Amino acid sequence: MKKIYHIKGMHCRSCEILLENNISKIDGVDKVNVNHKKGIAELYAHAPVNDDAVARAVHEAGYSLGVSGKLHFLSRNGEDYFEILLGFSALFILYLVAKITGITDALSSTFSTAPTYPIVFVIGLTAGISTCMAVVGGLVAGFSASYAETHQYATRWERFRPNIYFNAGRLVSYALLGGVIGAIGSAMNISGGGTGYLIAGAGFVMLYMGLKLTGISPKLSNTSITLPKGLSRMLGISEASGGYSHGGTFVAGALTFFLPCGFTQAMQLYAITTGSFVSGATIMFLFALGTMPGLLGVGAVTSMLKGRTARVFFRFVGVVVVALGVFNMHNGLALSGFNVSLPNFAPSGQGASMGKAAPIENGEQIVNMNQLANGYQPNQFTVQKGIPVKWVIDSKSPYSCASSIRMPAFGIAQFLQSGTNIIRFTPNQTGTLRFTCGMGMYSGTFNVVDRI
Q: How many CB atoms within 10 Å of residue 344?
């Protein structure tokens, strides 16, 4: 006997699996096929099936019987918003704990001289649970959760393998391209604006994947970003595989070399200064190897869960990925020269005042600043329009996230060397000039006035 039920609220393969698991437990049911695109469940039974039992099973899975009709942009299910609110609350609590305990500052490594190979690996370990997690970790979490959500019948190892291929791509590309930049110098360096657009682009992808995982928008959850057919065939991606291939995941991991966090940029600079293919390859390989534990940990968690627990966890992952997406879009746009008004992500303790007026010596305004592993001190200055500025930066941690400094308004993009670094520019307009690290995370401002 075959019966068809219309079900409202489905928007992905995970919905199908949850419903199939629940309905298949009803007495008399032999087989269940749920199709979220058609909004139906086909039941095959050897005995009469109680409609009320089906309604209860559907309700327990978080859905209801009936025709869905047109998909809404925002969910009409109150339970969706409750679970998302729990995710935001958990994320906020984790953030407060990290700030109060000083974990965020402890993750900023300080190296005043060129690190040895073992230290490069340690820097990678640090980056893998801090800045690289903010840029690459969001992508790993999004891809891993999306794959696990649509392949819930796969074994844990099968759902974990995408993370192996992603990190293998990173290891190979970091070694090869690290050797290239070590041999040819800074020819591979990307401009500050270009890096900013890459970071903002990655933030947009994270935002999209995060919103899909939260399920807050049924209409958005029913969409997907697909590659051109020719490229899909080249990477071995097919509709049958749900838009996934190990080759495509490997390539995605390899391309993260061009999406650097601050630590990555510092290590790329170190590789450039070696002037050697072997040394450059070794440095970048060890760094990528160090980031693996943190990134693999993200994938391991997302590959272990199933059923309703997985759905709630994926919502939390979605909230985290959305937060990382907004974070990276903000930083990337700021790095590219756009005036954004989101909260400042500089470390605590850096004041929000306009800063002291710069003294004038030999016709130049002298500004002194320290570059530390976790930002710039001080980071607020007041200068006068029309008078050249001599910006003296004492780099106390040149192989850290903040050692790459950018000021888009003047096209300044410089890697700081250990000790004294001098940057000169002349402000010709009043207003605020913003400078950031190479990732856009740490920042400061020059307040330009007509007369001091």
A: 15
- For 261-272, the three-class secondary structure string (H helix, E strand, C coil) is CHHHHHHHHHHH
When comparing pLDDT for 267 and 15, which is higher?
Answer: 267
Q: Which two tokens stand for residue 266?
A: 């510092």
- Which residues have CB under 8 Å from 101's CB, separation 6+? none
Mean pLDDT across 235-263? 64
- Three-point CA angle 108, 110, 116, nearest 5°: 120
Report the b/e string of 228-264 with b at 16+ CB within 10 A.
eeeebeebebeeeeebbbbebbbbbbbebbebbbbbb
Q: At what angle do helices 13-23 and 307-335 cross, to 10 degrees?
A: 170
DSSP 105-118: HHTS---SSPPPHH
Name the pTM for this structure.
0.52
Checking 415-422 for CB contacts under 8 A at 24+ apart, the result is 415/265, 415/266, 415/269, 416/371, 418/112, 418/113, 419/394, 419/395, 420/392, 420/393, 420/394, 420/395, 421/392, 421/393, 421/394, 421/395, 422/390, 422/391, 422/392, 422/393
Inform me whether the pLDDT recorded for 228 exceeds 70.
no
